[in-house]
Specification:
- The protein is of the alpha/beta class.
- It is built from six helices and seven strands.
- It has a single domain, classed as Vaccinia Virus protein VP39 (Rossmann fold, 3-Layer(aba) Sandwich).
- Helix 1 runs parallel beside helix 4.
- The protein is globular and about 40 Å long.
- It binds S-adenosylmethionine (SAM).
- The site of S-adenosylmethionine has 23 residues, from helix 1 and helix 3.
């Protein structure tokens, strides 16, 4: 079992509906204005149902969508058959399939809380290396009760910023909002740039 994926294979049929009910614009309203104009290279790590990958693809961006849970990935490919989304069966911490490449936006929505402190420390250099000079990294952090069957850890803005700073990334936006559907769940959405 790949760390972080616990529960997703079994729940995929339900999640492929639930995650798609929220629009990209609603979910990510706090950082929309920071997304560069179209025709950029996007890496979506833990792309889930492909909702976000599809939003970028519809603008004409070249999207690489990493998703290790087979049922999520295959369901997402059916939901969003865009030719400019390349789906890849790969996973953190190494994401070896994209090593050596760089992207204009590295997008990690609702993934970081699946890893413990040692894993997060090991992952940040790998993730930061994928951000092109002048480009951006978006990470959202989930806070709140852990759903049954999932592997999740408490994550903090301070720790995430410190890990990112050590890799030369600067935080330019923090948005903190309450989940619109899960009671007691809050999200921090962080946008980093690389000089
Ligand atoms: C809460 S979902 C978020 C999906 C999507 N990013 C979104 O915001 O709707 C977390 C996703 O991370 C994926 N995931 C879990 N462990 C992972 C790992 N080690 N590497 C990459 N993705 C992983 C899961 O399979 C799942 O699709």
């Amino acid at each position: 079992m790949i760390n972080g994926t616990q529960g997703y294979e079994q729940e995929a049929p339900e999640l492929l509906q639930r995650y798609e009910q929220m629009t990209f614009e609603h979910s990510h309203s706090g950082v929309l204005d920071l997304i560069p104009p179209p025709r950029i290279r996007v890496l979506d790590i833990g792309a889930g149902t492909g909702r976000d990958a599809a939003w970028f693809a519809a603008r004409g961006d070249e999207v690489t969508a990493i998703e290790p849970t087979r049922a999520m990935r295959e369901g997402a490919m059916k939901l969003h058959p865009a030719p400019n989304i390349m789906w890849v069966d790969d996973c953190l911490p190494d994401i070896a399939s994209v090593r050596g490449r760089v992207f204009d936006v590295v997008w990690m929505s609702a993934v970081w809380m699946h890893f413990d402190a040692a894993e997060r420390a090991r992952m940040m250099p790998n993730v930061a290396a994928l951000v092109a000079p002048g480009a951006a990294l978006m990470i959202s952090l989930r806070h709140g009760p852990i759903p049954e069957g999932r592997r999740m850890f408490e994550v903090s803005v301070d720790e995430t910023e410190a890990l990112a700073r050590a890799e030369g990334l600067t935080r330019v936006r923090r948005e903190n909002i309450e989940s619109s559907y899960a009671p007691g769940v809050f999200w921090d959405r962080l946008w980093f740039t690389k000089p």
